Amino acid sequence: MKTLKVFGNLIKDGFLEVTHGSKAYHVWMAVLSFIMLVGMYSYSIQLEEGLSATGMTDRVSWGLYISNFTFLVGVAAAAVMLVLPAYVLKNIDFKQAVLIGEGLAVAALCMCLAFVIADMGGPARLWHMIPVIGVFNFPNSMLTWDVLVLNGYLFINITIPMYILIMRYQGKTPNPKIYIPGVFLSVFWAVGIHMVTAFLYQGLQARPFWNNALLGPRFLASAFAAGPALIIIVLAIIRKFTAFKIPDTTIKKISMIVTVAAQINLIMLVSELFKEFYAPTHHSISAVYLFFGLEGKTALLPWIWTSISLNVVATIVLTFHKLRSNLNILYVVCGMLFIAIWIEKGFGLIVPGFIPGPWGKIAEYTPTLVEISVTLGIWAMGAFIFTILAKTGIAVELGQLVYKKKN
Question: Which InterPro entries is this protein grouped with (predicted)?
Fold first, then answer.
């Protein structure tokens, strides 16, 4: 009962904390709220008209929603890149950034689930995804495993930081024997959620663009580049606008993770390009469409070549220690890498897998305004959730939110 009482007080104090702030903070939250409202209105159109309101068809049945879902699974998994050094390798420099990374993982997972609901057409079909009562082909269906690992990872990323916050809220030291086992579990679970998501595509033999052994490892490499890159940008913003100071050494060490992951991701990209184009077969048609276009259909060319250009430039800059050590350059390069991988794991991965169709027809996919608005609304929701979690967590860490015992 005492724990519930403390938790209730933390929720009340947290609510007061997130409803007060500077003018810039209120403007930020107002903008996010407006974007979410626009997204909700667009989603109401989709509910009324069905998925015909989107650019998806029976030929290209996965689009902007699943593209963002796939990318955000990687962002969520990347939180382990802070947890691993901080708690497993006992690197003190990382511990100040762990709660931020965990909050980012929670926000990313909430967005993942929202994109799945949007892609299903409406929440009325959501019961199919619920274990026991849902229509699962367990254990053969990879979608079953994906639902389980995503919700399990969300539970882990909520409970561990919540325990640490509740203890610090009371002025106590968290017991490592309680949360360390969960930390180790989260390390393996983070790898699992991205590998299972990769298996969703990799196991489709009729889609040769996805059906290759390198897809899973490349998912991990790109995730561990984009996720920490986003964390660096978020830490830079927090350092600028709050009293929660992250030392330069923390950001520079995270940049090393980004650098190595980006280099591995680029090597894997070169390997895939060699496989597709050195001795091309009819299975290479999807890759040809993506990188060079087919029969005058070139909708993805600007996207993929922008992605590759940003990826190469960012990786080269990160490789040089002197350039990487300049934080202003680092922030710009991390933004470039994040955008590059978002494109690569979005349009560059999902859409080409459906082209050409079973009869050789090329039906290009272009997202509609409804899809774009819903997508922006979900991203705004994620930013809104993260802002609330970060503001509350930082206030507890700084000692501004303290449990007051009532006599």
Answer: DsrP-like (IPR054823), NrfD-like (IPR005614)
